[in-house]
Write a structure and sequence with these properties.
The chain is an alpha+beta fold. 40% of the residues lie in helices and 22% in strands. The protein has two domains: 218 residues, Neurotransmitter-gated ion-channel ligand-binding domain (Acetylcholine Binding Protein, Chain: A, Distorted Sandwich), CATH 2.70.170.10; 203 residues. It is built from twelve helices and 17 strands. The strands form two sheets. Strands 1, 2, 3, 4, 5, 6, 8, 9, 10, 12 and 14 form an eleven-stranded mixed β-sheet that branches. Strands 7, 11, 13, 15, 16 and 17 form a six-stranded antiparallel β-sheet that branches. Helix 3 packs antiparallel against helix 10 and helix 7 packs across helix 10. It is rod-shaped and about 150 Å long. Its main location: membrane. It is a multi-pass membrane protein.
Length: 552
């Protein structure tokens, strides 16, 4: 058994030997890198600016590289970004003036990578003297770095928190690319929310050095101007689901303060964003417009249903919920009223007026001749004039002629004079023969009812007949009063219907004109500029869905 296992042990020892040689191979070059590190940093002072003369200004050129727009908090007015700040520092090297790039990456609740690059004459070497080593990685805390900070930060973190290693090139160029996320304060203008456009600034400058010590400039700055139109690199930008990037100019500012004679420099990056409004249109604008049109339908609901006021109050409660949602989104500012707030407030005012008008309409609808008398001008305006203007036609019902003729006969009999003595009805036989002697008989003949006249002649006068005639007279009078009261009530109901139709048209016009006038005043609705982030971002281009080929 030991002899059979010997080949396996030999193979294992061979593999270990090869692995050791592979591990020691890079170490053969490490002595040169260690010697270079010791030579460069043994007498290096990271607290002193790398310039030959103390009066020389160190030129630092910076540029942002925006990676992601994480959040724009309207409530707290904070923008969170992910970006790279590219810096280039210039100094003198053995009497030669050279410029090299410097990069810094910092997010502003933008996610940013802060990449710095500058030229340090004390960190240059000859590669042939160090075994051909042309690049060296050192901790960034061991070398001098420009103290470029974000002035308008919102969380107190002025500098990069993760100090990654810096890369040294044999020419003296230093590159440092630490990742960072910045939260910058941003003045939010909610006047046209949610159809708004915001401009957030990120102000970078040296915290310690004045303009005579560190000359801060943009990488792409052209001589004779301090403005760079495309001041932020968007080549690796992840497009936002809420905002479109429209402009990213950078401006170099030089300020003098009363306390000092030296200028203080900063570079301000202005990020202009336009909100994508689909979310707010679907979840806020369209429901609010639907509720505003429900306010109009209150006047189409019949008054007899008893639900007009209930519908109006329900609409008012739903608008109150929208106001609470709006208050949770926008900052508590008293400078302007948001566009969406104007629209909700306008709808609430309309609904309040509709409740007041509905109360008046219901009051008119349930009026009666016992409580109100219709004035002649009310009858003329609301029954004869306005219905024609509002395209309303009141239906007229025809009365049965036989029923009307019988009712007139009964009324005439009831209202006739007392029966005369000697008439055929009493059997006395007075009066000319063949002529009716009572007004009842004359009424019978007047209404062409000879059969009834014959029956009346055969009847004899009796107390029961007088009581029946009195009852008929009372019923006829009450029926006439009831018909008159019903006619007046129907006139009041028709006036209320005319008022409903009038306010239906008025409120419809007010809702359409008011809604259009409020929403269409947003300037972004007429802004046809294409977002530059989609055009410049290589990531957006790579992840874009391929378009189908055009049909042949």
């Amino acid at each position: 058994m030991p002899r059979r296992a010997a080949p396996h042990h030999a193979a294992l020892l061979l593999l270990l030997g090869v692995g050791a040689l592979a591990a020691l191979a890079p170490c053969a070059a490490n002595p040169d890198a260690k010697r270079l590190y010791d030579d460069l940093l043994s007498n290096y002072n990271k607290l002193v600016r790398p310039v030959l003369n103390v009066s020389d200004a160190l030129t630092v050129r910076i540029k942002l590289k925006l990676s992601q727009l994480i959040d724009v908090n309207l409530k707290n007015q904070i923008m969170t970004t992910n970006l790279w700040v590219e810096q280039v520092r210039t100094t003198y090297n053995l009497g030669a003036f050279r410029i090299f790039p410097l990069r810094i990456s910092r997010p502003t609740n933008l996610w940013c990578l802060c990449s710095q690059s500058w030229y340090d004459y004390k960190l240059s070497w000859e590669p042939r003297e160090y075994g051909g080593v042309e690049m060296l990685h050192v901790p960034s805390d061991h070398i001098w770095r420009p103290d470029i900070v974000l002035y308008n930060n919102a969380d107190g973190n002025f500098e990069v928190t993760l100090a990654t290693k810096a890369t040294l090139n044999y020419t003296g160029r230093v590159e440092w690319r630490p990742p960072a996320i910045y939260k910058s304060s941003c003045e939010i203008d909610v006047e046209y929310f949610p159809f708004d456009q915001q401009t957030c600034v990120m102000k970078f400058g040296s915290w310690t050095y004045d303009g005579f010590q560190v000359d801060l400039r943009h990488i792409d700055e052209v001589s004779g101007t301090n403005v760079v139109e495309l001041g932020v690199d968007l080549s690796e930008f992840y497009t936002s689901v809420e905002w479109d990037i429209l402009e990213v100019p950078a401006v170099r500012n030089e300020k003098f303060y009363t306390c000092c004679d030296e200028p203080y420099l900063d570079i301000t990056f202005n990020i202009t964003m336009r909100r994508k409004t689909l979310f707010y249109t679907v979840n806020l604008i369209i429901p609010c417009m639907g509720i505003s049109f429900l306010t109009v339908l209150v006047f189409y609901l019949p008054s007899d249903s008893g639900e007009k006021v209930s519908l109006s109050i329900s609409i008012l409660l739903s608008l109150t919920v929208f106001f609470l949602l709006l208050a949770e989104i926008i900052p508590p500012t008293s400078l302007v009223v948001p566009l969406l707030g104007k629209f909700v407030l306008f709808t609430m005012i309309l609904d309040t007026f509709s409740i007041c008008v509905t109360v008046v309409v219901l009051n008119v609808h349930f009026r009666s001749p016992q409580t109100h008398t219709m004035a002649p001008w009310v009858r003329r305006v609301f029954i004869h004039v306005l219905p024609r203007l509002l395209v309303m036609r009141r239906p007229h019902y025809r009365v049965d002629p036989h029923r009307s003729r019988f009712a007139g006969l009964v009324s005439a009999v009831a209202e006739s004079a007392p029966w005369e003595e000697g008439s055929p009805l009493t059997g006395a036989g007075s009066g000319p023969p063949g002529a009716p002697a009572c007004s009842a008989c004359r009424s019978c003949r007047l209404h062409d009812a000879p059969a009834l006249c014959d029956a009346l002649r055969r009847w004899h006068r009796c107390p029961e007949l007088n009581k029946a005639i009195d009852g008929i007279n009372y019923i006829a009078e009450q029926t006439r009063k009831e018909e008159e009261s019903t006619r007046v009530k129907e006139d009041w109901k028709y006036v209320a219907m005319v008022l409903d139709r009038l306010f239906l048209w008025i409120f419809t016009l007010a809702v359409v004109v008011g809604s259009a006038g409020i929403i269409l005043q947003a300037p972004t609705l007429y802004d046809e500029r294409a977002p530059i982030d989609v055009r410049l971002s290589e990531i957006a281009y790579a992840t874009a869905k391929p378009r189908p080929p055009p049909p042949r």
